[in-house]
Amino acid sequence: MRNNKLKGGFLTAFFVSLSMNKKLIKFFKIIGIIVLVLYASICALLYFNQDDLLFHPQPNTSKEVAEILNMYPEFDTLSFVMKDGNRTCGYISKDTIKEKLPLVLYFGGNAEEVSHLSEYKKYFPNTIMALINYRSFGLSQGLISEKTMFSDALEVYDKLVTNPEVDANNVIVIGRSIGTGVATYLSSQRKTSATVLITPYENMIDVAFEKYPFVPISLLIKHRFESDTYAPNISSPMLALISANDQVIPKHHAYKLKEAWKGKTEALEVNEDHNSIMSNEEVWKKIEEFVKANVTP
User: Fold this and answer.
1) Per-residue model confidence as pLDDT tens digits over 285-294
2) Which has fewest Cβ within 10 Å: 1, 40, 111, 144?
3) How many domains does the chain have?
4) Which regions of 124-252 does DSSP assign to beta strands (E)?
5) Is 194 in the same domain as 263?
6) Which residue range(s) make up the domain with 12?
7) 262: three-class secondary structure by DSSP
8) Are strands 87-93 and 75-81 parallel, antiparallel or unpaired?
9) Do 185 and 82 sit in the same domain of this protein?
């Protein structure tokens, strides 16, 4: 009898334990499903909202553009119709010199309307300076993307070098932040004398992975800006301006791109952050010196 009671107690405990284990397994399954759903939701959110995270359009009205031209009378508006019918706009300097002049072509950051660069024309004497607004920036039309940024850059270049006032043998391309990807791509596809990159990066995948290490960035990102795949094909020189305290694009990304560049490279690292570097006099003096050294008579 006693053995039967022991067996009965053991069986009861076994089935109670089994029931509890099943409940725990069910609980952990539910937790796992919740975690997977949350993870998938985060990935979907990043994928479908990456344009808003990456691009911050700064449109202008015609009235605002008129005020800009009044502020910078040495500049005029620039406007080209792209192959898809959208208009890419910007600003171009007005020079009184009648001979052909070198072209300085500028591509800005992801939240930068480029008219303010007019005040830096003093660092580029005896050149034509063209400031290009991406689609949905300034008066430029259409939707911004890596694809349109690249294709518009090529079209704008092709149109500008046919200008009889432009010396097509002396084209300097400047890019800032996300615009360094545009400048690098352009220099890999067209003839340029030199490339100036302010707070550059090797590719957007590595930059984004540092910010979102828990998601498969390489599978999700649409705008890859893989400058390190274009840099090995560029023989012309490059100057990198690097911010020591850059929290947006940490400085090691700039050095990785510098290592990938085929042509001669220079770098200037200054004690600035991602935005303050644009106000650093040493930076602009260095750019001025670099441009002069790479313009041929």
Assistant:
1) 999 999 999 9
2) 1
3) 2
4) 128-132, 166-176, 194-198, 238-243
5) yes
6) 1-54
7) coil
8) antiparallel
9) yes
Displacement of CA 17 from its chain's centroid (Å):
58
Q: Tokens 């009889």 map to which residue?
A: 164
**Six token digits for residue 124:** 């580029």
Tens digit of each residue's pLDDT (9 = 90 or more) over 8-42: 454 455 444 545 566 667 766 777 788 787 887 88
- Indicate the residue type of 48: F
CA dihedral of residues 62, 64, 69, 70 (deg, nearest 10): 120
Whether the CB-CB separation of 103 and 127 falls below 8 Å is answered with yes
pTM of the model: 0.89
Distance CA 133, CA 113 (A): 6
pLDDT band at 75 (very low <50, low <70, confident <90, very high): very high
239 secondary structure, DSSP code: E
Supply 103's token pair: 């072209």
* 15 and 131 co-located in one domain: no
Rounded CA-CA distance 220/34 in Å is 21
